[in-house]
Amino acid sequence: MASKERKFSPDLPDDENPEWTEEHFAKARPGMDFFAELGMTPPKPRGRPAAANPKKPVSIRLDPEVVSFFKASGSGWQTRLNDVLIEHIKDKKKRA
What we know:
The chain is an all-alpha fold. It has helices spanning 22-27, 31-37, 64-71, 77-95.
């Protein structure tokens, strides 16, 4: 005989996950405290670390020849294009 699976209903109380009371919130503490109490190292944050100088997304129209040239050099072509523009700025500043 198959067990009867309980369907979720937001209107019915959930005995396995009761709604928190003010007392629960008053007792709550940061999850990192849990690791300290057990003498464990907390997990490292996921994802890429925040950049000190984050790039800004822009929309730009370039000649097809420019895009083809940089894409032909493979993955990372946007970074190489950025590097060329940075060098151009440095060169212009030297001449000024």
